[in-house]
Structures are given as structure tokens and as C-alpha cells.
Amino acid sequence: MVERRVTVGWAEGLHARPASIFCRAAAAAGVPVTVKKGDDGTPVNAASMLGVLGLGAEAGEEIVLASDAVDAEGALERLATLVSEGLEELPETV
Q1: pTM for the full model?
Q2: What is the mean pLDDT of residues 36-44?
């Protein structure tokens, strides 16, 4: 299992528009990815808008991205960059 811990960089947290950008990036990543809030949160499918919104992740909070796919390193790194930098557009490299 590969994990990346990342701090939410969007000012509004992982809600509405940022969640939509994140979910589309996770779906396009090519590997199954889960996300949870902090260490004690329940993991949800990172490509699920309802699951991601249900996390209630606010700006500055830590989330954990994880995948057990063989080639998950690159995908998790790109998703971590997206979240930490609070990008407004889906990066072309995702």
C-alpha cells in the first residue's frame, strides 16, 4: 500500500468545485485511489464526489491518499500536488 499525506490547500477546503476537480483527477489517474481525513478517518473512493464531500475536509487539514496498485506512486504524487497547491484547473499531467 502506497500512501501520501497532504494538507488541503484550497481556501474553501475539499468542497464543491475543488472536490469536483479532485474527483475528476482521481478518476483519470488510472489506478484505484482512496482518501481519508487524518489517521482515524474511513477511506472513501477518491473518484466519488459524494464520498469526498462526505469527508468534510477543510483548508489546512490533512488527508491521506492511498492505493495498492503496482504503479500508484506517480498517480498519488500528482494528486497530492493538486490538493496541496489548491489548483483551480485539472492539470494536464493527471
Answers
A1: 0.90
A2: 93
